[in-house]
Amino acid sequence: MSRAIITCILLLHSGLLFAQQQPSVSIAVDASKSIGDMKPFWSFFGYDEPNYTTRKNGQKLLTELQQLSPVPVYVRAHNLLTSKGNSPGPDLKWGFTDAYTEDKNGKPVYNWVTVDSIVDTYVQRGMKPLMEIGFMPKALSSKPEPYEHKWSAGGNIWTGWTYPPKDYNKWRELVYQWVNHSIQRYGKQEVTTWLWELWNEPDIGYWSGTFEEYCKLYDYTADGLKRACPECTIGGPHTTSPRGEKGYQYLTKFIEHCLRGKNYATKKTGTPLQFIAFHAKGAPELVNGHIRMNMGVQLKDISRGFTAVNSFPELKNIPIIIGENDPEGCAACSEKKEPKYAYRNGTMYPSYTAAAYARIYELMDQHQVNLRGAVSWSFEFENQEWFAGFRDLATNGVDKPVLNIFRMFGMMNGDRVAVQTANGIKAADIISSGVTGKPDINALASKNDHSISVMVWNYHDDDVAAAASPVELTIDGVAKDKVFVHHYRVDQQFSNSFEKWKAMGKPHNVSKVQYQELEKAGQLQLLTSPTWQKVDKGKTVLKFDLPRQGVSFIQLSW
After folding, report:
1. Which of the listed residues 345, 375, 410 is the one where a domain comes to its end?
2. Residue 6 covered by a domain
3. Extended beta strands in 14-154, E state
4. What is the mean predicted confidence (pLDDT) over 507-513?
5. DSSP three-state, residue 296
6. Which residues are part of the catalytic machinery?
7. Per-residue pLDDT reduced to its tens digit, 375-396
8. What residues pair up with 131 in beta bridges, in sequence order?
9. Is 90 exceeded by the pLDDT of residue 139?
10. Same structural domain, 442 and 406
11. Which residue among 21, 150, 433, 485 is least packed, with the fewest CB closer than 10 Å?
12. What is the pLDDT of residues 8-30, one digit of tens each?
């Protein structure tokens, strides 16, 4: 057998020959053409379990999140007013602070120790709370028994913490005391930079009251907050999917109440509404033995939410927050609970995130809205197996591949600049048809005074093996003769602690040396050594292969 034939067989076996035969995807970046601000709306994160904030791994992850962002990171946590009840401790989808109790005479007793420890953790790092006012303390619940839930053991989740207060005046005073205490502890200048909101997803089981009772609670909440701090910002309602009629109507009815309804607390017309928040989720499923993502429904949520806000002309330019912005709806459900969540450990979650957030910029431009934040509902889970398949950013203190996409976003600032590709998949295409035909090979680019940054992804909704795609990236509008090029990569080989862990044999008792290796593998890594590259008439070209579900980040600096 000739050497040439042997070589072909080896190349076919490795997939390299197939990759070389793929047509090159041309991506053109015009750095001279600005299309809008590179708004860091991605710098928002959230989670259910507030007590994990102060744990070692929680503090480590929060530090990393702030370090990767050029602006203060906003953090949203559930259960900041929830009582412990008879629960043994924090659990999946469960946490508590015991901020409010009552003495034997029914007099309120406030205890801010746990709340302060959580907020201190944020403030000490330069982070900001997206302060969720909830859930109902046991002493105030109109149906306190049973109170705590045992969801992780298969129990009912919608228990006493979801009910309206037995006394709205006591609730209002609780909010007033919390805000007033915050000002005394952190100073008004700091507290007025925070964002305050009421509850979570009141259109489903998180709220066991009626729509009218939620509006009443919001009115009393806003009244208590504004009495303590007229300059503080409050918004809502953090409803679920607006792509369906029920979610859309709940959102618009709430806005209508705040604009023109009778205020239950003040008896006047209208209630302060200084930002609007709704949630957007995708919907993965198992198809023929593999995972198929559904980015289209998440983008449809966002588009419909923007449409809802724009239906009120008087709210032009009001800040919008996508209060939970994720590929699906259950961060605390592991891969063992549902196999469709296995996408979270490897490269599909990162590539999905890159492609989805780029389309959020597109929808923001299309609807001409003021998008303030998009909260990735992902943090870390304590006392769980390594790479258990939760929707988290780190496992046992080791960063997962998806966190490196946010590191890439953290290096993008200035103006977004024009990108063109023959691939041409737009947000509208994904909403209507998903990414189930040709792969989505595209880019997002930005420029400041000293650099041009380009994020390139090779995404497909189907988690199946495919050959790498050759990419020819042309960057025009470079006002220098030579640039210094850094090329970072997230794929099976680079910036991937999960693949490193699998190569170790999937240990669950990790040694100190293994832990250090996993930590290193979890960081954002260069594909090649940085190099100087010439620019010819304002243009430079880079060629590289990009694996399926891989993400490259190219930065030209001078």
Report:
1. 410
2. no
3. 25-37, 44-47, 74-77, 100-102, 108-110, 128-133
4. 97
5. helix
6. 201
7. 999 999 999 999 999 999 999 9
8. 196
9. yes
10. no
11. 21
12. 443 344 444 343 456 789 999 99
